[in-house]
Structures are given as C-alpha cells and as structure tokens.
C-alpha cells in the first residue's frame, strides 16, 4: 500500500461515515466496494489490484497503528508533534519503551482523519489530544 492508496481509502471511508454507512462494528460491505472502486480510479498503478479483503486487512493495520500511537502518547513522558504527526519523548523515555521504538521516527500522517473514523468505535483518548 502506498501513502496515496491509504489516503484514498481514508477519504472514501470518511465520506461513507458522513453518509451514515459506518456500522457499530465497522463498515458496511458497500463501503469496501466504494474503496475498491476509488482505488481502481485513482490508486497506485504499480501495485496489484486491491480487493475488498485487502482493503479490510489494510484498514485493520491502519486502525491498529493509530490505537498503538494513541496509547503510547497517553503514557507519562510522551508528547505529540502535531505538525509532523509523530510521538515525541526524550531519549531516556524512549529507552524505557524499546518495544515502541518503531514510533520514534515513524509518523501517522493520517492521524486526524483516523481519529474521525475510529471515534466511537475504539477507545480513544481524543480529549487528551485536542
């Protein structure tokens, strides 16, 4: 998945949510078809075609990453650089959380969009962030 593909997916899912097509546990099947169709029109041409199942799987990865970053950010000693969409901390704090080292240099560029999409579906600490 390219960054462009992920942005397309999140944009389509945002529209689906605005249109009331987000179910309690996730997305209605037609939402995934809308994502696939939009990816066919605008997505990366060097990647293999995205199926409904590949979209569902990628959404799970995006959501899992979002939740991991939120949980990390909520820990004592961590902060947030909103301009870079990255978790911040001192070297000492990062050293204490080596299991999360991936997030030291990796941004969640779609953070705000993901917050909109998962709000109400997963436990978020949105009040702490905005």
TrEMBL record:
It comes from the Eukaryota. InterPro entries: Myb/SANT-like_dom. Residues 1-97 form the Myb/SANT-like domain. It holds the Pfam family Myb_DNA-bind_3. This is Myb/SANT-like domain-containing protein. It comes from Neolentinus lepideus HHB14362 ss-1.
């Amino acid at each position: 998945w390219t960054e462009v593909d992920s942005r397309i997916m999140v944009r389509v899912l945002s529209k689906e949510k605005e249109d009331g097509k987000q179910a309690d546990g996730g997305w209605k099947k037609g939402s995934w078809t809308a994502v696939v169709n939009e990816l066919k029109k605008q997505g990366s041409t060097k990647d293999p075609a995205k199926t409904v199942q590949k979209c569902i799987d990628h959404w799970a990865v995006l959501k899992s990453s979002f939740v991991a970053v939120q949980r990390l950010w909520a820990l004592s000693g961590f902060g947030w650089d909103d301009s870079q969409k990255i978790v911040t901390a001192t070297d000492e704090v990062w050293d204490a959380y080596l299991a999360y080292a991936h997030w030291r240099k990796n941004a969640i560029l779609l953070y705000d969009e993901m917050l909109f999409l998962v709000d109400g579906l997963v436990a978020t600490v949105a009040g702490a962030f905005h």
